Amino acid sequence: MDDRRLHGREPLFDTEPPGLASRLVGLRPHQLRSCPYEHDADLPFVVFAGGRGLGKSALLDEVRAAYQGHTPVALIDGEEPQFAGPPPERPGEVWSPVAQALTTVAEQLAEPVTGARRIGFPRLASGLLAVAAGGWGDRDVPRIRQEAERILLLNDSRSFLDGFAGRWVSKVVAKLIASMSNTGPVVEPIIEATLESFSEGVSPTHRRLRRAATWYRDYPNAGGNPKLGLILLSGHFRAGGDSRTHAERHLVRALLADLDDAYAGVVQRSRRVGRPVILIDNVQEPAGRGLLECVLRDRADGIRDQVVFFSALRGHTHPALRNAARRTLTEVTRTTGWEPGASPSSRALLVSLPPLKPDDTLHIVGAVCRGVDVPPQLPHATHRLTGGSPLGITLLAESARQNLPRGAASLGALLTGDVTVHDDHDGRPAYQELLDRLVPGGRLDELTVLAAAHDRTSALALARDRLPDDFGAAGVLGLEERLAAEGWPSAPGQFVGDPFLRTLLLLRLHHLDAGHAQWQAAHRALVDHYGEQGGADAARYRLHHELALGKADFAVAHLRDTFTGTDVGTWLSALVFIASAPYYHAHDPEGRDFDGGHDHDHRAAVALGRTDAEQRPPQGVDPVLHLRVRRLLHAVWQLTDPLVLPDAKVAERLRFELEQLSNLRPSGTALLWRASRDWPTDALAGRTLRIPGDGEDGDGDGGRG
What we know:
- The protein is mainly alpha-helical and about 700 residues long.
- It is about 50% helix and about 5% strand.
- It has a six-stranded parallel beta sheet, sandwiched between helices. It has a two-stranded antiparallel ribbon with strand order 7-8.
- Strand 7 and strand 8 (about 430) form a beta hairpin.
- It is elongated.
């Protein structure tokens, strides 16, 4: 695959056979070679969907790089500050995120491409001037001149370097300012002066301006009068609400009509290969959503355009996309299979982005870490930790490049090690860099604490114990809603469902203070919460948090005492859950915390039996079973830890201990034997440990032994 492309996104960028981008744009990426269109008349508005970190922004950046200079391309991000509110001194009634987006998009689309000159946007400029004039009642000439110049520069299709554009704009601006009297409204005289300026001259450029000026005669209730049409447009925009939405829809239509004009005629079409492309990141924000809804509505009403829209949606659902066709990226590899329906939202094609595959991770780590001695297990362990998150993989690979030569020996060390991602910034821990991008917008401190919880009830208990009184239930519900809205998956038994995000948050919790006091307090609060409840489930959760505090004796005793009287599948499930307790620091054999670092992880020593001689099993228990369960617990704890590289010796010991346990449960032999075969392999491959089913191999537990 070409190094310029993104790993795991071949269905979009393939050239032979052509991928989605080639088939819609009609142009192969990074080439001036045409490609047959998949959709000739009606085009889908493509929306790439997914949570944070899945590479949606990088995908749009790559589309821009693939076509810039070959066909008109524009990229905006709905979260940019320029779309958050009007500039200083500009009245809010004549500004909107959509109008700002249209100006920004047109400025980018205007740039010349190979074989074709700049594109002018006279229809859009006329409408934007009429809107802006509604805020010029204060006669602030410097501001008026600045706003008018920016809008009028969208008009000319000549290069700014030949000087004509600048001279023409200056002349028109002077005429606009002269048209304003010291008193009274300015919208009508500004519109008159604009239309008059567009009607002057006999050159092809002026003929195009005159033709564009008459476009607003079809505005509703204009009665064929373009001046009245622009006056109505300006009034509707200032009125706000649905009236503004109506006006914005006509401004979007003006932009698309100007683009159609640039491609009209045999000569123009021969000079322009491929369709124009508009890219909208964070389309769920007001600027992006406004463009999306206007385009979908017009296309549903039969007003066609030939612009390719690629956008990125945070999450997987949105009210504006209720009836959108849904595909995975793999499903659009050769064809979209898309057909529009009657509703506006059916004109969209929502494509979910999958996580990257282990092989993609291998290639990314290899490319970033050229010349660095990378442990062979690191790429697959990175994939296990990140779940295939492109952001996580890329940043961890960069941390590996910088920190492996400094002695880092685990993924935990790579996350806590400083990484420099910008040349003009000092390095800081990789987990902090990741959380800044995955959890922006506040409430990180609260989410950090609640990441230790397992459901809403335990989150509420944790909030009562560890968070300010004014956070309360509303804060818990708000974070729960926010996680869902941003596309983070839910998972049974976890308040933060995504394992990678939860790992990062818990790592941050552990490092909030030097003595890990907040970490310990959060887990003790949950130990108390589950200790007040009865039943096996509550016991598992309590022991999980005891283990997170480094206290393994309680878990060993529970698993030892329940081994012979519990369904084997249930027992194995409890073992895996309890052993999934986070382990971000070293403990001594008594569970006390000490600054031993990741290289002093004692779990392998326990799993391999090196500490057996120091142990004194409680009186009255089978010492062999006790020590075997202790070794098994620590083996599973170490092998399933996403922050360490799996230890082959520990995996072999896991196999042996499960085999030996199978001899003690004749009715459950098949399940324990199956686990002894599957678990070591799964652990070394970075897969989740699967619990064998009761009916597997036709030999279940058959009840309590």
